[in-house]
Task: inverse folding
């Protein structure tokens, strides 16, 4: 029996779906239109729904469904009592807004209100039943039962290629420790922030126990049908298969742009809900047709079938070219499913059901590695998954000032830690490190480069940098004031309580 025409049980190849769950730390840093609202919407519209998909399929006996990256920042917010209380409050307000809309004289809006009310009540019940105790028990159960592979990452999500190796190592080890505390194990795989890479980083990855990571397809010169060791290391790079990934992700031809799907950008401003379908890209918001959830969900299932066909043909072509069963990695931000693309979770669930029926093995990255989907070593150049597949989004001329300030901040942090190092843990030094890392988050440069909430991004950098400066000055001259400042800063921005600056 030939390689590519075997029985479905043999499989024609392997698909690894990889999701990256990340937002910057937003607690106590503004609510709307940017800030905590991001967390509330991402959790209620996307993250919770994706977890529910995994749990439903697990109940049917499915395993190794997908690889789920949860950054230490998201993990911290979803275990934080303040953030969880605000999510609960937001869900309650969602239900109240929806209930009010049901009384609208406009039949279409009242119908939308009933739909939203049902969704809000379901979410609220779920939050109250289990999420208020924190996300870690839920995520750990999925990992322990072999439903998903959890990826970790560096604390605060900095763009690693721009950091000093000492900072890279400390961010990685602190992030791994964080996962160990929350989930009971240190992940051996990570989604490197922005898929950023520079030659030599694999040495630090290896020293911190990272054995696999995701890069963008062009970084592997398109050779994504297998994972590849980076240089002489044992660290494996899995590459996004853009031919498959862009069938969904592409803003021009991806599924979310279909006329039937809920339009993300059109609002009923009185209620805050989205009443319209995409209709067409040329249709003005006020002229868009009403959204029909039944029709939209039916379209999501049809598009799932199309995607499975695309993926199956891709695996057959790769197998014919290489003479062996191939692997394809389709990787996305988790928020695509439910937040940006409301019907995304329906599509995702249907894809995960259909792939095995089409003879495609669904796998995590770890399981794919263990199954032998590993090729020859490669040398990877400086790269990312951003525009141009280089560093321009995080290190281009438009963010030169941010890069320069970040480099200076990193040097000051290292110098301060070295001058204050002792056998006794210093809470002020730990908070100094926290403030520096929060200022170095890759999100801020991305937002400035993409002209998205630019002032918020710059203000967040300035806020953390100013706290860093005040705290550092007080540590040198007024220890009591430094202790007071530390308590104030920890109350606002105190994630990762285990962070130990002495380990830098």
Result:
């Amino acid at each position: 029996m030939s390689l590519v025409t075997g029985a479905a049980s043999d499989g024609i190849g392997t698909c690894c779906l990889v999701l990256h769950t990340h937002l910057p730390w937003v607690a106590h840093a503004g609510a709307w239109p940017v800030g905590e609202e991001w967390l509330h919407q991402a959790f209620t519209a996307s993250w919770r729904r994706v977890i529910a998909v995994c749990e439903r399929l697990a109940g049917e006996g499915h395993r190794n469904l997908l690889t789920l990256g949860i950054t230490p920042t998201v993990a911290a917010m979803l275990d934080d009592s303040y953030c969880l209380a605000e999510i609960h409050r937001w869900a309650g307000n969602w239900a109240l807004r929806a209930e009010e809309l049901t009384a609208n004289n406009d039949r279409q809006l009242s119908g939308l209100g009933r739909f939203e009310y049902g969704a809000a009540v379901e979410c609220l019940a779920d939050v109250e039943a289990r999420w208020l105790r924190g996300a870690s028990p839920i995520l750990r159960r999925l990992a322990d039962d072999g439903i998903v592979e959890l990826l970790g990452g560096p604390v605060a999500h900095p763009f690693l290629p721009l950091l000093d190796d000492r900072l890279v190592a400390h961010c990685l080890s602190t992030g791994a420790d964080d996962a160990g505390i929350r989930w009971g194990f240190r992940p051996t795989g990570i989604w490197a922030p922005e898929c950023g890479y520079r030659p030599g980083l694999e040495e630090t990855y290896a020293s911190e126990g990272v054995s696999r990571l995701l890069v963008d397809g062009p970084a592997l010169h398109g050779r994504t049908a297998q994972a590849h060791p980076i240089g002489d290391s044992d660290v494996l790079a899995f590459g996004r298969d853009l031919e498959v990934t862009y069938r969904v992700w592409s803003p021009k031809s991806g599924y979310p742009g279909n006329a039937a799907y809920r339009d993300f950008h059109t609002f009923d401003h009185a209620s805050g809900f989205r009443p319209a379908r995409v209709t067409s890209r040329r249709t003005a918001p006020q002229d868009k047709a009403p959204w029909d959830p039944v029709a939209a969900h039916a379209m999501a299932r049809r598009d799932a079938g199309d995607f499975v066909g695309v993926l199956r043909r891709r695996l057959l072509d790769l197998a014919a070219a290489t003479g062996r069963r191939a692997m394809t990695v389709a990787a996305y931000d988790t928020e695509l499913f439910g937040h940006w693309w409301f019907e995304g979770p329906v599509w995702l669930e249907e894809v995960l059901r259909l792939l095995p029926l089409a003879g495609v093995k669904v796998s995590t990255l770890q399981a794919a590695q263990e199954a032998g989907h590993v090729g020859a070593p490669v040398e990877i150049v400086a790269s990312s998954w951003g525009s141009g597949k280089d560093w321009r989004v995080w290190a281009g001329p438009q963010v030169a000032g941010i890069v320069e300030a970040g480099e200076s901040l990193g040097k000051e942090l290292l110098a301060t830690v070295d001058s204050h190092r002792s056998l006794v843990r210093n809470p002020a030094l730990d908070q100094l490190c926290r403030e520096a890392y929060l200022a170095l988050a890759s999100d801020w440069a991305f937002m400035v480069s993409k002209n998205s909430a630019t002032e918020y991004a710059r203000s967040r950098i300035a806020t953390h940098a100013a706290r860093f400066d005040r705290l550092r000055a007080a540590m040198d001259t007024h220890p009591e004031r430094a202790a007071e400042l530390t308590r104030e800063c920890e109350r606002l921005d105190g994630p990762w309580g285990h962070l130990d600056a002495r380990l830098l």
User: Anything to note?
Assistant: The longest strand covers residues 13-21. The radius of gyration is 23 Å.
